[in-house]
Design brief:
It is built from four helices and ten strands, in the order E-H-E-E-E-E-H-E-E-E-H-E-E-H. The strands form two sheets. Strands 1, 2, 3, 4, 5, 6, 7 and 8 form an eight-stranded mixed beta sheet that branches. The chain has two domains: about 160 residues, SRA-YDG (PUA domain-like); about 60 residues, no CATH class. It is globular and about 55 Å long. Helix content is about 15%, strand content about 30%. The chain is α+β, with helices and mostly antiparallel strands.
Length: about 230
Amino acid sequence: MFQPGQVISYLEMCHEEGVSLQRGMNYRLNGGASVILMSLQKNAPYADCVKDEGRTLIYEGHDIPRRAGVRDPKVFDQPMTNLGGSLTQNGKFFEAAKRCQKNKATSDRVKVYEKIRDGIWVFNGVFHLVDAWLKQSNARKVFKFRLELLNGQSGSRVCRKQPDLDHNRMIPSLVKLEVWKRDKGRCVKCGSTDNLHYDHILPFSKGGTSLLAINIQLLCARHNLKKHNRIE
C-alpha cells in the first residue's frame, strides 16, 4: 500500500485498488476498504475541507447523476437511494457512519486520494468514518461525512493511539501545490521524479509543522527512507 504523502499517478492509483476509479465515492471496494477521491482546488465540484491541523476531513456527498430531465444536479438534494430503491454511495457511507456511532469499537476504513493537479495525485492516508449528517446548502440538502486520519491500519477495528505523528497530519493542499512547484516535481536530493513523497524537514514529533511549505520537501523513496525521522 502507498505511504501517506506519496505522489502517484491516476494509473498507479487504479492499479493499487484493482479497479478503474470513475467516481469519487467507492464503498468497500472488492469487499475491503472504501475509497474516496477528493480535491480542494478552486474548481472542485464539491466543498470538501480539512480541519484540526490536517487530522480531520469533512467530505461532501455526491450529486445525482446527469440523466434525462436533469440539467443541473446542483439544484437537487443529494440522494440517499437510487431510483430503484437501493442505496447510493451517499447512503452506503451514511449508514456505515451511523453503525460506527452505535458501536464505538469499530469503524469503516477509508483510503483517501487527493488530486492536486492534472495527472498528479497524493495518497492522504487511511481514515476512519466516524459521523455523517445532512446539511442545508442554499435550497438543497447535501451529505457531510466526518473522517479522522489514521495510519497503518489493516482491519476495520481501529486504535486511536498512533506513534508516527507526521502521518497523523494531512498536509494542506495549498502547501502541497507550493512545494510541488518549488521543488519542480523532483526529489530535492537527487532530482528523481519517481516514487516521490512529501516529507517533513523538521518532523512533527519534534515541533515541525505541516502548515508551511518551508517545512515540507519532496523526496524520492530512497532518500525518504534514509532520512526517516532524523533531523538533518
